[in-house]
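Internal QA ticket QA-208
Title: Verify multi-chain structure generation after dependency bump
Assignee: T.L.

Test input:
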Amino acid sequence: MTTPWTYKNNTLIFDNIELETFAKKVPTPFYLYSSRQLLNNYQEFYHQALQNDLPAPLVCFALKSNPNLSLLKTLAKEGAGADIVSVGELRQALSAGIDPSKIVFSGVGKRDDEILEALMTGEQGIYSFNVESTEELDDIITQAKKAKRVARIAFRLNPRVNARTHKHISTGYKTHKFGILEEDILVSAEKYKDSPYLNFVGISVHIGSQLTCMEATVDALKAASSLSSKLSKIIGHPLEFLDVGGGLGVDYSPQDKEVLTTPKQYMAMIKDVLEKEMEELPQRIVFEPGRVISARAGMLVTKVIRKKFSDSHQFIIVDGGMNDFVRTSLYEAYHELMPGIKREGKEQMVDVVGPICETADCFAHQRKLTPLEKGDFLGVADTGAYGFSMASTYNMRRLPMEIVVDLEGNWEGQ
Ligand code: LLP
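Actual output:
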């Protein structure tokens, strides 16, 4: 995967523009996004699905990773769909121009009003409600009666697999709140198969995020394939689609690079498993990627407030904090740190911390960086996914700004 950033003469360049050009005009901390990189990532993902002959691929970008309107418009123009989890995300997807017939709605806590609005959207409602409990089906029927519409339903399978990723973002195990166990899906299908308000069109399965090792994904796809034939028999027709979820990881660190599964390998794996496990491939394969499309399209730009020395520790205190970007605090995630200008001199071992009053407010612990001085800019790389979308005003701070470099290389505020 390429990056939108590179160094030229020790100066950090983002989308062919020096980082300092942005940082001198926009108050730090701010997010900087590359539309071009986002589009490349999307195109590569889609292209690999086509290359592997996966039928009529529909790539529903997971808005929760980055709901920036300008970025979504770029994806919408390219034909992307959306994976949403709230009415807020539904409205954002629609304002970006994403076709309702390309929207899938996941999440264990869809409210009645959210279900109703999704049903009333477009000519026929959204593409699919990815249903996470039998109880949710009852609520969908109630709202569908009200809307006088038929809801398109995919059962989200809980495949009882353990995706080896951070425990906060693993979702496919039987004790997790997500999805429905196979035996319960079969009972539900039997019970509701004749409902005039439900159209059973698919199965979805999503087992976690930042997945690098594919073992659990293979098991989940096998479970979905086996369910698919059982379900088709009950409802009396083949299912239209299989939604394989999102979750493909990116290489944040050099260690990640060693174990990474690329979109090319991912699509080949899906093709291989489905061909072996399914009697017949469904008409369409749906994907819900977030991170693999958006992470590398963004960088958080911060400024060094001051340095602090304590015993043998050197702290670089920057003006961005865990309220702006929480991944390093919440999941102890690794992100590359990139000085706007690489100064001459020996690399130093530092802790890069923010101004928030919590020890967890740390972008990097004991990292070797070229010397940094007060006023220097520092980029936190690969923060286009789960960056701004998880930002808060904790400690009564303002939300960071977002600057988008468009496909022509223009940006607002230049
Ligand atoms: N589909 C469903 C049903 C999901 O729950 C998610 C992510 C995705 C798709 C997209 O997953 P992705 O391709 O981006 O891995 N805040 C965490 C990640 C939380 C993921 C939640 N669900 C982080 O920063 O690592």
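Spot checks passed. The chain has a mean pLDDT of 96.
Status: verified.
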